[in-house]
Amino acid sequence: MSHLSYLFGLEPIGIKFGLENIRALLQSLGHPERAFATVHIAGTNGKGSVTAMVDAALRASGRRSARYTSPHLVDIRERFVVDGRAVSPEALDAAIAEVRAHIDALRAGGVLAVQPTFFEVTTAIAFELFRRAGVDIAVIEVGLGGRLDATNVVAPAATAITSIAIDHQQYLGDTLRDIAAEKAGIIKRGVRVVVGRVDPEAGDVIERIARERGAEVVRAWEGVTAQGVRLRTPAHDYGEIALSLPGAHQIDNAVVAVRLLELLQVPAAAIVEGLTHTAWPGRLERRRLSGGREVLLDAAHNPAGAAALASYLKALQTDRMPLVFGAMRDKDVDGMFRVLLPTVSALVATRASNARAADPGVLAERARTIAAELPIMVEPVPGDAVAAAWRLSPRIIVAGSIFLLGDVMRELDR
User: Fold this and answer.
1) b/e string for 163-174 if b means 16 or more Cβ within 10 A?
2) Lower CB count within 10 Å: N or C terminus of the chain?
């Protein structure tokens, strides 16, 4: 079995919260996560964008920066970025082999009672890759939650919580307070935490946990003015910033990123440079193809993300476009449809190539109860769904699941 096959073979294990496995594995590896400074970022939505912005600005300031994010869209190497580039296949293969050897030894010795999960192993691989690359600082995105997420073994220089919304209830709880408590688990004693726009009930929980840990809370928007993309914080007037990531919601993410970068004492010029050159695929990403065709790819996969996409579509003030949509079974599809369907001209329901993907026929039924007049089709294969949407309009949207985006991107790149 190749090293990459070994890694993907761990995916059926699923999600398991807890830090025992990752701590044992990192101890065996000689604590690669301690070889560089870290920034730790949690949140329901926006954490990936903020991670990308912070990484870009750190690089613009001359720091040797890395970033670890999940999931990937097309290639697993997207998760492990050093100096703005995905690690090489050779570097990844060597790191997987190293981590795998330690896991095998720990299991043989009885230290690990069970096989670590895919995410636990990829997290250890990230730290090993970054140590081998000799990075100066790594920006680490939480996978799920925070308190018991495998990334929550770092001793960060600063942390951030971008947003709190209902998602992953089966793991994080059914209320904003429960979810906020899980996200706030990344707050470390004496380490400042930047908090984005959150509902008061979520904010109260975060503030309480921060007080208990002696961690200063930096409310991202406190003392900040932003007209369009003219940004001024208590520390600096940045003037007009041409954010490279489109959408009004990216202003919120940029404010969190800027306040975090200020804590890291990154120069203002590098902050502006980073925000104007951040690349983060699949976030309101527009691709133009032959024959005048165009696709807008967005990773909206919960009601809050769908609302941000809907807001962007309304602001376009152009003819409505067909939506190719696929989602995971555990998602609040009704909540997504309620905000998205009024902004599109038709729906093509499909299925992402993931075991947790919802049946497209079920998605179509849910859509009909919410938007009875909307033209709705079912095309189980993503490539067929995209082709069907393009028959309706040369400009289409793909959203509802990060996994669906990956399927469509692979199709487009053929």
Assistant:
1) bbbbbbeeebbe
2) C
